[in-house]
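Still learning folds. Look over my entry:

…
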Amino acid sequence: MKTNRFWKWALAVATMAVVTGSAFAQAPSATSNTAPAVAAIAAPPVAAPAAAPAAPTPPTAKDVNSGDNAWVLISSALVLLMTVPALAFFYGGLVRRKNVLSVLMQCFILACVISIQWVLFGYSLAFGPDIKHLIGNLDWAFLKNVSIDTPHWDAVTASSYAGTIPHQSFMIFQMMFAVITPGLIIGSFAERMKFSAFLVFAILWATIVYDPVAHWVWGKNGFLGLMGALDFAGGTVVHINAGIAGLVTALVLGKRIGYPDRMSPPHNLPFAVLGAALLWVGWFGFNAGSALSAGGLATSAFVVTHVATAAAGLTWALMDWIFNKRPTLLGVISGAVGGLVAITPASGFVNVMGAIGIGVGAGILPWIFVSIIKPKLGYDDALDAFGVHGVGGTWGAIATGLWATKTINSAGADGLFYGNPAQLLIQLKAVGVTIVYSLVVSFILLKIVDLVMGLRAEPQAEKIGLDLTDHRETGYTVLD
């Protein structure tokens, strides 16, 4: 009876959220702005500088806006903070003590390895001049023609990704997204993948999965962007992409030894709380930084990011309280991260009421997957990378098609609640394409790595713990 009453209550709350969001559909927004088009919108129209009839003239160093550039550089540092130390401590606190260093190591080494990959060729593949709407070419490999003193100017399309900051500022900002995305997958295979296999898979996945999807959505003439898909800061590119890869990895590797009966609870919940708190702070660079300017659009993205996170953390706590009799700290931080994930694609397109609706959904749907569906299906998504990022990112991308409004971002589109049901269909298509591509290619890459060098740690190594067997280190001193 209590469960039935709860579902009636939950349905009523969800209905109120939808109705409230719809009621604000025609209301003018105080956060409406005329900020430059963001990188998350494929091929946004940007006014071309004065040009001779034969060819456009690149902007000069005088065109760099120091305020915009400062904000993007600060945001880049905030996004790096999300990987090390935020994600490292969030995941590290959730595993068993014998594997804490292995998780910290995996997160830290990604910041090293993917940064080099990005400079050598990753950035050019993701954002370089387009090849058939599928991938960038290698014209910008080794950062060739990626200037440090003038805004990026693409003579082919006569438009820029970010017209008021140096090209290398845009490059370094996007590098931090490329660093954290494979890091999210760690949560699915924690405590059981060999470090060597992890490194090889991460490089291959970043190159063959992340870079193409980033080009499809954010690159000039990428086909999903041309289709009109909205992804302000990484719902499809980052969270769905990594979440689906995480699920595939968990299934290919199989369950941890002793799962689920002999799995211990998080070994250091305060570490996880510290990591979640740092993620919340860093995410303002993730979302508000994606405005690529220090204007009103960045302010709006900052506000809705915070509001959605608060709504999701509160909702997850209520779900725990109602179903499990106690609200838990682990539940609050899980819900907060789910809210951050879900608002990411919508952060540059929705108002605060849309953010609340997205946050409530992010507190309910991932909770259902983590607390009900995963135990019933029995797959071992160790730290719920799929349950939070895959499910939360999917909800956020779809919800963008519900609550997006051009009163927030004129370069975006209106969603279903603002009279444009076609945008919801576009979002569904983008979600479907990303899921299928990430699932299929991630599976192939895992099988190749497993065939060549083996993916999973030896049973004895898994029992001892990867800290000692992979790194000959321990996170804690054991006293006799």
Remarks:
- The radius of gyration is 22 Å.
